[in-house]
Here is the input.
Amino acid sequence: MTQPDDTLTPFHMLAPDAILDAVESTAYRCDGHITALNSYENRVYQIGIEDAQPVIAKFYRPKRWTDDAIIEEHELTTALAELEIPVIAPLHRDGRTLFYSGPFRFALYPRVGGRAPELDDPEHLAQLGRCLARIHNVGSISPFKHRPRIDIDSFVIRPQQFLLQHDFIPPHIIASYETLLGFIIRRLETIMHSCSGIRLLRLHGDCHAGNILWYNNGPSLVDFDDARMGPSVQDLWMFLSGDREYMGARLHDLLEGYCEFREFDARELHLIEPLRTMRMVHHAGWLARRWDDPAFPGAFPWFNTQRFWEEHILHLKEQLAMMDEPPLEWRHG
Here is the structure.
């Protein structure tokens, strides 16, 4: 596979003709219609197919994942789909799911419609819980070999280092940021050590409302691109926000459905706010690493402004305090 020129943007060679040529290399006949879909880490398009339903073509960001890591994701979602668990798995062509065209790797998916779940609806949350429990039952059978796990180093320490080394943080708040991150890292290490006996499993990893399609009165999960090893609560906590009472009610609804298919270790409730904190730091680092990609400044104009960094530090201070609060309460049954 030809490697793209690092001095240019990652997708500079992905012109419409290149997209159509790639899809047609898998024996589909395109009708020339291309619609760009909302995606920044990768590039995703709806492609019209002659005398058939459109397909979704996902072109992977060069050098982010190894082939083995991508295939592991495909193998997991394929196994889930074969068990009739509602996930959107890649299409197989001649026994393959990962394809190559020029400098790019890509996969094809069926087009599936749907809407976002209603997170105020207890039945929606219970159905999400049931679906996630079934996914985790499969995810717990064996570990990923080529994908990383959710940990402090990759989600906090390395993003922090990148931000500081590349002058993203305004000079007048660097000292405050470094001091705060020091406190956060030490608190995270203490909490993670106390929860070291919690089992890790293969997860969706980025399970939020934007990756759920509500279709035929139930959820379908899409985009396992961030699948990693981690605690099961990683796929639950992003549905919980608001004040403590509200989050507790939503947690009850989720776990009511979840526990119909899988036991939940209540110790994982201690990890909700630490995981939320880790994601906040990781997200800022992700935006910084992608800032040279022309798609990012236009999509995230608020990032890398003085106001963003001041609010980011304020939110991290709030999270540091939240990590000292008792976990949400939950009583099974």
Notes: Residues 55 and 136 are 28 Å apart (CA to CA). The longest strand covers residues 52-59.
